[in-house]
């Protein structure tokens, strides 16, 4: 076989010699498929608990049995006086921001007088939504609150969108700030992730928790990149809850202290402090 050489001459082709050592099959490197850190699994089938919220996820991770009593066995948990008061004040705040309570800030909201006045003005300008129902499917697409494919639900007390790609989330609290900073901060991050996925044009979100009784505030803020780096981890936690088959009790001091199902004898696995002594 003749071969054209680079200088234009023609000559006989000389077989190239393989100077590399032969590789056995065991020596061959086979790269593994790359799994990107931001990938999430959306192909799973949900179980007996088909949807989650931040509060139900927190309860599940503390004690799966408690959530199963409420959502699988359908044993209702009565509201407490503190919860009822919280609901009343939340409703009052919503009505004021919507302009349904007059101009004067109601007494329970007075410690955040300027903040509520600013929210009310922003609502009048069409920048604020109150108690809007956010519903997501397993792939974090939007759906209806009561639709069968609803996988995650979130309801924000107040959500203010600015025209510069930023937004403010406000969550009203009637409980205490001290000792709840970590939990409430995680709640804010969950809201931020949902907001960034719901509104692709947002680049920055600030979350404020207003502790109405004490006049205290907790603030967190995220860029899109900072928040969404936590999205796969949150998704996996929620997947664990919504695909669960078993719901074991996890008795502990914190889980059992205010648990209705333990106090009423419905749950038999109640934390016994004497066993830790």
TrEMBL record:
Gene3D superfamilies found in the cross-reference section: 3.90.320.10
Region entry Disordered, spans: 1-34
Biased composition, class Polar residues, residue ranges: 16-26
PD-(D/E)XK endonuclease-like domain sequence ranges: 52-261
UniProt-recorded name of the protein: PD-(D/E)XK endonuclease-like domain-containing protein
Organism: Gallibacterium anatis 4895
């Amino acid at each position: 076989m003749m071969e054209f050489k680079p200088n234009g001459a023609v000559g006989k082709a000389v077989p190239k010699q393989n100077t590399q050592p032969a590789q056995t099959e065991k020596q061959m490197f086979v790269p593994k498929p790359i799994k990107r850190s931001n990938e999430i699994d959306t192909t799973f089938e949900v179980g007996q608990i088909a949807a989650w919220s931040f509060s139900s996820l927190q309860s599940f991770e503390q004690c799966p049995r408690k959530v199963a009593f409420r959502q699988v066995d359908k044993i209702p948990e009565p509201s407490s006086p503190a919860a009822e008061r919280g609901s009343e004040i939340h409703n009052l705040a919503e009505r004021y921001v919507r302009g349904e309570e007059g101009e004067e800030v109601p007494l329970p909201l007075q410690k955040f007088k300027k903040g509520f006045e600013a929210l009310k003005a922003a609502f009048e300008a069409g920048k604020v939504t109150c108690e809007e129902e956010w519903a997501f499917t397993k792939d974090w697409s939007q759906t209806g609150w009561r639709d069968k494919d609803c996988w995650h639900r979130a309801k924000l007390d107040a959500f203010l969108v600015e025209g510069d790609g930023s937004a403010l989330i406000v969550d009203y609290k009637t409980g205490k700030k001290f000792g709840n900073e970590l939990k409430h901060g995680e709640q804010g991050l969950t809201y931020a992730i949902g907001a960034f996925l719901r509104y692709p044009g947002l680049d920055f979100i600030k979350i404020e928790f207003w502790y109405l009784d004490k006049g205290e505030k907790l603030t967190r803020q995220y860029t899109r990149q900072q928040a969404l780096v936590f999205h796969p981890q949150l998704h996996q936690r929620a997947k664990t809850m919504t695909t669960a088959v078993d719901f074991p009790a996890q008795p502990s001091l914190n889980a059992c202290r205010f648990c209705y199902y333990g106090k009423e004898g419905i749950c038999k696995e109640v934390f016994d402090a004497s066993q830790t002594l």
